[in-house]
Amino acid sequence: MEEQPSAAGLSLRDMAALLAVTRALAAPFELKQMLAEVTAAACSVLRAERASVWLFDAAAGELAIEVAIDLDLVRVPLGVGLVGSCAQTRQPINVPDCYADPRFNPAIDRRSGFRTRCSLSLPLIDHQDTLVGVLQVLNKADGVFDGGDEAVGTALAAQCAVALTRVRMTQQAIAGELMRQELELASQLQLSTLPSAMPQVAGYDMHALFRPVALTGGDTYDLALTDQGLLVVLGDATGHGIAPALSVTQMHAMLRMAFRLGASLETAFRNVNDQLAQTLPDSRFVTAFIGLLDVATHRLRFLSGGQAPILHFSAAAGACTAFRATSFPMGAMPISVLRPAVEIALAPGDWLVLLSDGVYESVDAEGVQFGRERVERLLREGHDRCADEVALRLMQAVQAFAGSAPQDDDITIVLVKRQPAAPAGVTME
Amino acid sequence: MEMTVTELAGEVTCVRLVTRLDAQGADRIGLRFTTAVAAQARNAVIDLSGVSFVASMGLRLLISTARALNGKGCKMVLFGATDLVQGVFDDAALDQIMPIVETEDQALAALAS
Fold first, then answer.
1. Domain total of chain A
2. Which residues are registered as beta bridge partners of B13?
3. Which of A3, A39, A138, A422 is 20 to 30 A from A100, comparing alpha carbons?
4. By CA distance, what is A277's nearest residue in B?
C-alpha cells in the first residue's frame, strides 16, 4: 500500500511509529526509564545514530544532559550552543554539517569520542507551553535530516515533553506522599506511646483527650497504674510538630522507665529533667506535671516543671484551687535544689484538671484568651458529669470560643475524678 | 518601639520591651531580642515594665535567651514586671531559672551578686 502523507506531512509509517511511541511513553513513571524510552524512540523514528535529552533547569537557566552515551553530566547555559539556542528560540535547529556551524561545540565530541556529522535539535514544549528541555538527535543513518524529519521530530518532541512533565509531576506527588507517610508514621509512633485505654481504678473516673495541631504534636500524657500509685502525666514541649513530639516522647519514655524501676517521684523528676537538660537545645524544653495518686488514701503528690495552672476542683466548695509549678520547665537547666512535692487530698466528687496551654491560650477573634475562668465555670456547671463528657464539653467550648480561627497549638486534656460518695445503702462499683 | 537596646555602665546590656509577649509578639521580636541579649558574652537586664502580657511563647523566648547567655557564663535578670506578668512567672517557677526583681537598681545589684 502506498504511503499517503498526513496533513502534518507525516507518512503512515511515521504515524504508526509515533503512535507506538505514544503508547510506550504512556507507561513509565520513572524518569530514567522515560528518558530511555524517549531517546530510543527518537533514534528509531528519525533513523538517527544517537539521541540525547537535555532537561531545562529554569532556576539555573541551564540545560543538563540526562541521557546520552559516553557522556557524564554536561550543563549548557540557555542560548549557548545548538542545544542552548534551540531552547532559547523554542524552534527546531537542523544542522547538516555541524563542524561548519559556529554554534556547535566540538569539545563534547572530543570527550565522548563520537564524531557528529549532522544534528537535529528539537525543543521539548509541553501541553502548557512550558519548555521542558531539548531532544537532540545526531547523524541520520542515510544522510542528513530533512524537512520531513523536522515534522516527525516536532510531533515526537511534543509527545515526549508531555510524558516528561507527567513523570516529573508524578515524582513530585510521590515525594509529597512519602513525606505524608513519614509524618503519618511519626504520628502513629507518638500515639502508640499514649495509653490505649484508661486504667480501671475503683472509685475513680478518668479521661484524656489529645488533639495535635499537626500530625504530630508537642504534647503528651500518661495515666498508668504503677507500684507507686496511679501515675498522672501531662507534658507540653515548646512548639509543635516532629521535633517537640520527639522531645515529649523522649520524656514520656524516660518517666515510664524510671517508675517501672521503682524510682520515687522526686528521683524520677530530677533525673528526667537533668537528662533532658543535657540533650535538648536551648530553645526547647518541656512543661510537665508528674503526679502519683495513692488510690487507697486518695492523696496526690506531684511535682510540676513549668506546667500550670494545676486545678483541683473541690466538690464540697464548688470551686477550684489553682496550684503553681514547683519547678522550671523540664530540660531548661539541671536542678540544683528540688522544691518539695505538693500534696493534695481528693475528696469524693473532687477533680484533678490538667490542661495544656493550647486550652488556656486559645484566642477568640478579638485576641482574648480562653483563660482559667472559663475552665472553672465549666467545672462548676458540669462536675457531676462523667470525665469523658466534661473533656468533650471543654474541647467543644474551646472550639466554639476560637470560632473560625484555626487551632494553633496542641490541646491536651487530662481529667481525674474521684467518684462522689454513694448514698447510704448503695454500693459503688 | 517594641524593643530598645542600650548599654549600661559595666558592660551590661539593657533591653526595654514594650509589647505583648504572646505568640505573635514573641515571634516578632524573638530573633532581635536573642541577638541583642545573647550574641555577646555580656550580662543583661530586661525591663518588662512595658510588657502587658506574657504567654507560653514569651516564656520560651525568655528561657531560651537566658540559657544561651548562661552558656556564655553570663546572667540575665528581669525587672519591672506588672502583677499580671509576675503571676505568669510565678506559675511557671521562672525565678528558679533567672533572677526576677522589681527595679533596675535591684537588677544591677543582682548581676553583681
1. 2
2. B7, B44
3. A39
4. B67
